[in-house]
Amino acid sequence: MHVQLGEISTVVVSSAKMAKEILVTHHPCFANRPENLATRIIWYEQEDMGFSPYREYRKQMRKICMMELLSIKSVRSFRFIRQDEISKLVESDSVVFFCGRLQEVHCQMDEVLEDMITQHKANHEIGRKGNAESGDKDLIDLLLLQQQESGINHQIPITTRNIKGVILDIFTAGTDSSSVTTEWALSELMRHPEIMAKAQEEVRQGCKGKKTIEEVDIQNLKYLKMVIQETLRLHPPLPLIPRSSRENREVNGHMIPEKSRVLVNFWAIGRDPEYWDDPEKFKPERFEHKSVDYLGTQSEYIPFGTGKRMCPGVTFGLASVELFLAHLIYHFDWRFPNGMKPNDLDMDEGFGITAGRKTSLCLIGIPYHAYD
Ligand code: HEM
Questions:
Q1: Cα(173) to centroid(ligand 1), Å
Q2: Which amino acid positions bind heme, per UniProt (predicted)?
Q3: From atom 39 of ligand 1, which residue's Cα is the shortest distance away?
Q4: Is-contact 227 192, C-beta < 8 A?
Q5: How would residue 100 be classed by pLDDT, with cut points 50, 70 and 90?
Q6: Contact between 315 and 164 (Cβ < 8 Å)
Q7: How far apart, in Å, are the Cα atoms of 255 and each of 9, 16, 91, 250, 258?
Q8: Ligand 1 centroid distance, CA of 310 (Å)
Q9: Which residues lie closer than 8 Å to 227 by C-beta, 6 or more apart?
């Protein structure tokens, strides 16, 4: 589908076959991200990783992120932080909100990032002067280390703006997508009490007697994983995968001009009756005999995108959602307030970078002491 949005030629791709053409066959022609005011102001003139144009700097930064920050080994090494944060969450109420004008938001975030970097540099200095270094390295330590090695290991120097951009990528792309997915999964479980009962039974039996669920316990929770797979099919947090064309390109007989905005509509692909039986129904069992590798090899299932620009945070994202959801249904029985029924729950998406719920999910959590 072609839509002319003012001066911007926009192509929306809503079939698995065409998605493969755009994201794989004709990569790298469609490897750029669309530019706009928000990406320029907030993401340091796109000097980050997620929005930077497809050129040498981006390849280098992605390689560093994949090897040093988001590799299976790094994701595992941060498991204590995840568990600690989730334990704090199940013990407290928390509300997070974000608003405001672009420049104002940018300045506030920049100040926070600058403070974090200065603090880390000061800690390195103390470490160098002979005092003991405290604990393991976190994401900022790893990025600063890569910066020090610029010129030795990397062709393109890594600037402090690049580091800030990448931290911002990880905060924004990494936190919202995971929390949105967890919220949709809990919403679907509330709409389907029989599925909630099955998932809860699996978690409570599998982790019986434990005060805290650990990531190793998650490996055996097959049904929970299917619930998440089905949630990502029906409610991908990034329903429109944004790309932009770097040159004129003919794809399946259609000429797509240079600098067109190309949106791969995974929301529609995930509901395409050509691939999905009873597509609108939330049915985790459909994944019982369908192997999912999340690498985009089946173009009808690409919640993390595919090709060279696919999400580098798959392992991190899944680890967070699995642990978070498992804790929520292990430690609490959930009820609707005010006599609400499962079918009364509004399942519309709201407007935003990620497609979260239009209305907040308000539930009553009744603590369940599975470990007494
Ligand atoms: C449920 C969780 C998540 C989902 C569903 C998700 C989905 C996606 C999708 C669809 C894309 C676009 C891919 C493409 O253009 O082909 C993307 C890009 C990206 N994601 Fe994720 N993501 C998740 C979690 C994370 C996490 C935890 C991180 C980092 C810690 C992360 C970092 C990024 C970055 C940096 C990009 C841009 C990559 C690039 O342009 O090279 N994501 N994600």
A1: 6
A2: 311
A3: 50
A4: no
A5: very low
A6: no
A7: 12, 19, 55, 4, 10
A8: 7
A9: 185, 188, 189, 195, 199, 284, 325
Give, using CA atoms, the residue closest to atom 37 of ligand 1.
50
pLDDT category of residue 135 using cuts at 50, 70 and 90: low
- For residue 372, how far is its CA from the centre of ligand 1 (angstroms)? 39
User: Rounded to an integer, what is the distance from CA 14 to the centroid of its chain?
Assistant: 21
* Contact assessment for residue 56 and residue 155, using Cβ atoms and an 8 Å cutoff: yes
Say whether 239 sits in a helix, a strand or coil. Answer: coil
Q: Which atom of ligand 1 is nearest to the CA of 58?
A: 41
Tell me which of 22, 74, 177, 301 to substitute to probe ligand 1's pocket, judged by most ligand atoms within 8 Å of the beta carbon: 177
Torsion of CA 98, 174, 358, 19, to 10 degrees: 140
Report the predicted TM-score, pTM, of the whole model to 2 decimal places: 0.89
Ligand 1 center to residue 178 CA distance, Å? 10
Q: For residues 282 and 295, what is the distance between their CA atoms, to the nearest angstrom? A: 22
Q: Is 289 exposed, middle or buried (0-12, 13-18, 19+ CB in 10 A)?
A: exposed
Contact 371, 90 (CB under 8 A): no
Query: From atom 17 of ligand 1, which residue's Cα is the shortest distance away?
Result: 311
Q: List residues near ligand 1 (CB under 6 A).
A: 23, 49-50, 62, 70, 169-170, 173-174, 177-178, 181, 237-238, 241, 303-307, 309-313, 316-317, 321
Handedness of CA 177, 227, 281, 272 (dihedral sign): positive
- Distance (Å, rounded) from C-alpha 123 to C-alpha 196? 46
pLDDT digits (tens, 9 = 90+) for 247-298: 999 999 999 999 999 999 999 999 999 999 999 999 999 999 888 888 888 9
* Whole-complex ipTM: 0.98
Q: What is the pLDDT of residue 257?
A: 94
29 labelled binding-site residue: no
CA 146 to centroid of ligand 1, rounded, Å:
22
Strands ordered across the beta sheet of 261-265: 2-5, 8-13, 261-265, 240-244
